[in-house]
From TrEMBL, chain A:
Pfam families: HATPase_c, HisKA_3, Sensor. The chain crosses the membrane at residues 20-38, 50-69, 115-144, 156-177. Residues 331-412 form the Histidine kinase/HSP90-like ATPase domain. GO terms for molecular function: ATP binding; phosphorelay sensor kinase activity; protein dimerization activity. GO terms for cellular component: membrane. Residues 52-196 form the Putative sensor domain. SUPFAM superfamilies: ATPase domain of HSP90 chaperone/DNA topoisomerase II/histidine kinase. It comes from Amycolatopsis mongoliensis. Keywords: ATP-binding, Kinase, Membrane, Nucleotide-binding, Phosphoprotein, Transferase, Transmembrane, Transmembrane helix, Two-component regulatory system. This is histidine kinase. It catalyses: ATP + protein L-histidine = ADP + protein N-phospho-L-histidine. CDD domains: HATPase_UhpB-NarQ-NarX-like (cd16917). Residues 225-292 form the Signal transduction histidine kinase subgroup 3 dimerisation and phosphoacceptor domain. Its EC number is 2.7.13.3.
Automatic annotation (TrEMBL), chain B:
Residues 2-122 form the Response regulatory domain. This is Response regulator transcription factor. PANTHER family: TRANSCRIPTIONAL REGULATORY PROTEIN NARL-RELATED, TWO-COMPONENT RESPONSE REGULATOR. It comes from Amycolatopsis mongoliensis. CDD domains: LuxR_C_like, REC_NarL-like. GO terms for molecular function: DNA binding.
Amino acid sequence: MTIPAGLRRTVLRAQRDTGFLAAGVLPHLALVPVWAWAATTTARTGNWLLTGSVSSALALLGTPVLTAVQRARYRVLIGVDVPRLTPTAPERWTWASTARWVAATRPWRKIGYHLLLGPLLALLELLVLAVAAACLAGVTAYAWSWALPTGIRQDWFGYLTQLPAYTAAGFLLLCALPWTGRAVARAEARLALGLLGPSRAQRLQERVDQLAVSRTDLIEAVDAERRRIERDLHDGTQQRLVSLAVNLGLAIATRPDLPSDAREVIARAHLEAKEAIAELNDLVRGLHPAVLEDRGLDAALSGLAARTPLPVRLRVDLEERVAPNVESVAYFVISEALTNATKHANAMRAEVIVRQVGEVLRVRVTDDGLGGADAAGTGLTGLAKRVGSLDGAFHVSSPVGGPTTITAELPCAR
Amino acid sequence: MRAVIAEDSVLLRVGLIKVLEMGGFQVAAEAGDAEGLLAAVAEHRPELALIDVRMPPGFTDEGVRAAMEIRRRWPGTPVVLLSQYVEERYAADLLSANTSGVGYLLKQRVADVADFVAAVRRVADGGTALDPQVVAQLLLRRDSDPLARLTPREREVLGLMAEGRSNAGIAQALVVSESAVAKHINNIFAKLDLPVVDADHRRVLAVLRFLGASRD
């Protein structure tokens, strides 16, 4: 006979919740002796200064230990992770910064939890455990009754009426038990998260920090991937193509005796190979020029400007190299803007200005083309996204008739 | 003429050897990285070193640095750098010390066998061979106001001159007479305040110096 899966799950969960509640009783009652002793001793001797200081010290010392115990209990027994409160230590320990640091650990809530709420929760837990024990006893009433001597069983009037009632009540409670345990456990978890865990603002702050780090990591990973692709193409495909073109060139140069139609075919293949190399070069450079990594933005931009088929004025004022991901985005913006100026705007000339002002890298590309560029177009949206990924500002001004100015401001604090 | 080749792509190395042999060079040694190259140059003292810019281990500018090292340790060794992309900064590094016997060309130029051989020969004879792309980048120097005073034709001539061509070569390229070229060149020197000198590489040196290639 197999037990239905649903029932098995319910039983296991009820077992887990009950165990969780049982494990809470002692730590929740841990500080009761302290204040009970304080109350009774003060009543007896009137020396509230001594009892107050001793019990406060005990409560303060006990709080971190009890918090750790409770966190372990929540995590291990019902899988609720109460985040640890670890505010970043101040750079200088002054009175004010220490006070702020202590406040960030939310001490009063913790002390309140262990000192006042704990005993109440312990009562609730004991109640649930008592109900559990009662219902188990009720369900097994017949088994207990058989243990009674025969004489007593025959003389007991309730044998026929009370026992079924006990059993039925036990069953009803048994059915209600999983939900009761669940509800109490959930309520406790919620209280613990609120009182022992970080506040909403602290949680959001932490989440924002995590996201900022993971976003930076992601951007760097993408950049690394681009560099890897660039290197693979450079060391593989491009060398093969060059080698092919060289061999075709050799064939033309060393075999003048070939029939003219064969020579023509080879010459065409030679030309195609060279064009393919040029195309692939442009493509790979757009990916991530090696010189950018190697010599920085200024060097990479002079190559870019030289390859642009219109006259480009280039001014780069950088005190020092900025972070690689900033360099990469700046290069990408300028590359794309110059491509647009050449392909779509029919520009006659363009100007690129890159300046570092404090902790901001300002990039401006102007062309004298037709203007009317659509800032919502795919190319410009892509640029805006890449600039946005670094928390930069991106702006396009392109009235019909020109000129078009694209500006990007990239934070580059090092 | 003995030559040494440094190129990490085995495939391309084979092609380069063939091209050089066609041009009348004997390839004394081939290397796959900068270290091997320096050892080969030390051993063979070649009349030409043909070097790939990007080589193991770092795949950045090892070739440029190796070339500078060769020029420092064995002055006068003609060096030709090959690169997938031509960057004027690398050329500037190489040209800053001395422009005689220096070449810097795009890899794909090797495919035009005859032109490439001619360029390499020019370098081996103590001349200069710069890729038009480098020259284009050099001409792009920002704030080079005197350049703005040149006519488009003079710019063209300056570009060809920077590539290391002779007057005859420039005349051929622009389909004008040599005397016209000489006149343009004199005008350029006058506009740029450069002393008139006659040797090819001196002219390149002057051009590059002016263009700020020998910064840092």
